[in-house]
Amino acid sequence: MRRILGAARRALEHYLRTPAERRHALVGPAELWKMKREFQISFLKQVGLSSQHYLLDIGCGTLRGGIPIIDLLEPGHYYGIERRAMVLEEGRKELEESGLSHKRPVLLLTEDISTLKLPRKFDYIWAFSVLIHLEDTILFDTLGFVREHLEETGVFYANVRIGDEPELEWQGFPLVSRSLEFYREACASNGLQLSDAGSLNELGHPGGSPRQRRMLKIWRA
Asked: By 3-state DSSP, what share of the chain in percent is helix, strand and coil, each rounded to 5?
């Protein structure tokens, strides 16, 4: 009975949301959407992103973080990839409603990142709340993809969960914690190096455990 009531409550909450709120909820708690959008653009500016750079957003979702990045970059300099067709379609709606279609971002649907080949390399590759949802095999494929698409001086930033917490689930995806050494070895096997860029709290993202929620900086070895 408790499960039934819980499902009914969630269905009612979904129904009562506006279309925009329902879109935001596809990529996390709707009430945290604005904060997470602002964090992403603020962090990327802090690490040097500017208008002339090319950026690839892995798991771009509904463009929660993508919209201000697209707004900053020159036309055609933003690439976003997403594996969920419905979510990417909501991102296209977000782009149009934001009046940024003239920036000509490249938005691509792909179910298997290991088979994706893009026509250019990138100054920045970004994956916000993505690696934490990848099984090991897909993580290794993603790191190989990053290695092939980073400029020689390019940088890949991604947040992770550090620790040995039991695996959970979110919207059909695993929610994974790993050791920093696991990520270091995974990067090394794909010709990459990493450093711990700090906790999300230190970088301006509130909430969560500072020891567990970390940002990785990754570059070509």
From this structure: 40, 25, 35
Query: What backbone phi and psi angles, to 5 degrees, belong to 20?
Result: -65, -40
pLDDT in tens, 171-183: 667 789 999 999 9
Q: Say what the pTM is.
A: 0.85
How confident is the model over 94-137, as pLDDT tens digits?
Answer: 999 999 999 999 999 999 999 999 999 999 999 999 999 999 99
Domain extent for 84 = 2-220
Q: What are the strands, taking DSSP E only, across 121-212?
A: 122-127, 150-161, 168-170, 173-175, 192-199
Type of residue at 173:
F
- Whichever domain contains 114, its CATH number is 3.40.50.150
Cα separations in angstroms, 78 against 66, 107, 108, 175: 8, 8, 11, 27
Count structural domains, the chain: 1
Q: Contact at 8 Å (CB) between 129 and 200? A: no
Give the chain's length. Answer: 221
Pairwise CA distance, residues 40 & 19, whole Å: 23
Please choose, from the candidates 145, 159, 163, 171, the residue with its C-alpha nearest in 3D space to the C-alpha of residue 202: 159
